Amino acid sequence: MSGEMQPQPQPQPQTQTLSLLKRGGRFRKRHLWWGCLVGVIPLALFVSITGSNAWMPTLFSGTPPKHLTHTIERKSLEVTITEQGTVQSSDNTEIKCRVRGFSTVTYIIDAGTDVKEGDVLVQLDTKRVEDAISKHTTESHTARATLEGSIANLNECLLAEDAYFEGEYKTRLQSLQSQLKVARTNLETAEMHLEKARSMFNQGFVTLLEVESNEFTVTRAKLELEVVETNLSVLEKYTRNMRLETIRGSLAAAKSKKEADESGLAMDEGRRDRAMKELALCVIKATKPGLVIYPSSAAWKDTPDVTVGAGVRRDQTLLLMPDLSKMQVKVGIHESIIARVHVGMEANVTLANGVLKGKVTSVASVARPAGWWTGNVVKYDVIVDVPPLEDLKPGMTAEVDLLLATYEDALVIPVASVTQGDDGCFCWVKSGDRYVKKPILLGDGNDIFLVVEQGLVAGDEVALSPQAIVNEQGLESSDLGLDTAVSSEAGDRDKEYSDEIPGVNKNE
Questions:
Q1: What is the mean pLDDT of each run of 10 residues along the chain (508 residues)?
Q2: In this structure, are residues 465 and 480 in contact, taking their beta carbons and an 8 Å threshold?
Q3: Cα 192 to Cα 182, 186, 199, 214, 248, distances in angstroms
Q4: Which of 45, 172, 393, 436 has the greatest count of CB atoms below 10 A from its CB?
Q5: What's the confidence (pLDDT) of residue 298?
Q6: What does pTM read for this prediction?
């Protein structure tokens, strides 16, 4: 029905398995798929296929076999992944730069050195710090002189109010009060003289002009008294208050200026003191005995990030002092396999000086950065804890084997016998004196064998050299799922290896 949703095609198991083998597994052998298609398998592969030595006389007789075959059988199959990892400590004491800004390294101890407490590990260039000390010292001296001036001004302002009340104000008040008494006395005298002049005028002893003169004197005395009273009132109500506000404003400003100058001095002295401490931090010494190593550099670099002449920043890790009693192996697992790796999985860790049993303790949830330096391969970091081992050092190379799955009594086929075309996976099965192309459904597997889910039965003989079958039966290289050039090259390699492979069947 046209209106119904059509089911989406599901990926075939064999496609998934072979894709897995292409990308990783002991899958880390990235060129394995070419060998799988053309039969280029290491000597150990064929040793594991069969223990039969029936064909050995033919091999050494000088008559090479025409075809190599394998008899399908049931057996136990382990699916493992092998990756190269690096030994490291799970507990590292970080030696960091504590100098602000950027500094230049003038000396750094060699990695792998066993140091004692107090040994010099790193020295940084001190010129920038010394210049800072000189600058901040000068600034602190200037700030202190400014502060002393502010303190003197504040003290002056603190005395100003008392000085005003005890000096200027008191003097002015007393002066006006004296003037007031005088003015009142003058007014009283003038009024008395006026009264006397009027009496004598009425008696005819003085003229009217004298009376008017006395009246003018009284008027003037009243005016002088009013001026003095006004001045006294202005002094009490306005002048005093205005002067007090001015004095108190100057005092507040002086206090603020003193506080600001104190803060400025503290800042300048703090900068100077920090610079002097940083001068001491330019020489980094070991706080405990132990082994010293460099931090891991970027993946694309061949040298450590911290070397003589390198610029370092504050809080940058310069060195590590690992705890050798707590060791682990960090290994990168391809993105196609990481889903099958879990915490608690046991691992075999092969080192130059022995084999250790380890356990997966951490699986990264975020992949390593991929770029041109990694071939754009995406990997996830997996941590494997290992027991202490004498002479186990950080930076050592370790080979980590992880058992992904075990299949009991599984029908298996060599990877070399399997090819993949547009219509799926298939192999060449011996039928009489010919070989028949037979589709197969594959399950899980490793780089040697694959589990056969459909298409074969125990006892079937499959060709280990599909290219030879195609050439013999006059088929096109497209039936092999390879281009002609690659197939021809692979066929040559099969012929080269045929005289070295024990334990396989052959047809004349």
A1: 40 48 41 34 35 34 60 93 90 90 92 92 93 93 93 88 82 88 92 91 87 91 92 88 87 92 93 92 92 72 74 91 90 91 93 89 88 76 89 88 92 92 89 90 91 94 85 59 37 39 42
A2: no
A3: 15, 10, 11, 9, 48
A4: 45
A5: 52
A6: 0.55
Tell me how far apart the alpha carbons of residues 452 and 42 are, in angstroms, rounded to a whole number: 22
Angle subtended at Cα 65 by Cα 60 and Cα 66, rounded to the nearest 5 degrees = 160
* Phi, psi (degrees; rounded to nearest 5) at 46: -70, -25
Would you state the pLDDT for residue 474? 63
Cα 402 from chain centroid (whole Å): 29
Question: What's the pLDDT score for residue 347?
Answer: 93
- Amino acid at position 183, single letter: A
Please report how the helices 127-163 and 240-281 are oriented relative to each other, as an axis angle in degrees rounded to 10: 160
Task: Work out the angle at residue 465's Cα, subtended by the Cα atoms of residues 461 and 466, and round it to the nearest 5 degrees.
Answer: 90
Q: Domain boundaries in the chain?
A: 13-80+406-507, 93-121+283-322, 128-281
**Rounded distance, CA 22 to CA 24, Å?**
6
d(C-alpha 334, C-alpha 377), whole Å? 8
* Second-level CATH architecture of 128-281: Orthogonal Bundle (1.10)
CATH topology classification for 93-121+283-322: OB fold (Dihydrolipoamide Acetyltransferase, E2P) (2.40.50)
Q: Phi then psi for 93, rounded to 5 degrees? A: -85, 120
Rounding to the nearest 10 degrees, give the CA dihedral for residues 388, 392, 398, 402.
Answer: 0
Distances (CA, A) of 486 to 175, 259, 416, 426, 482: 124, 86, 15, 18, 7
DSSP state of 197: H
Tokens of 19: 């894709």
Residues 250 and 150: beta-carbon distance below 8 Å: no
Q: What residues pair up with 105 in beta bridges, in sequence order? A: 124
Place of tokens 């594959």: 442
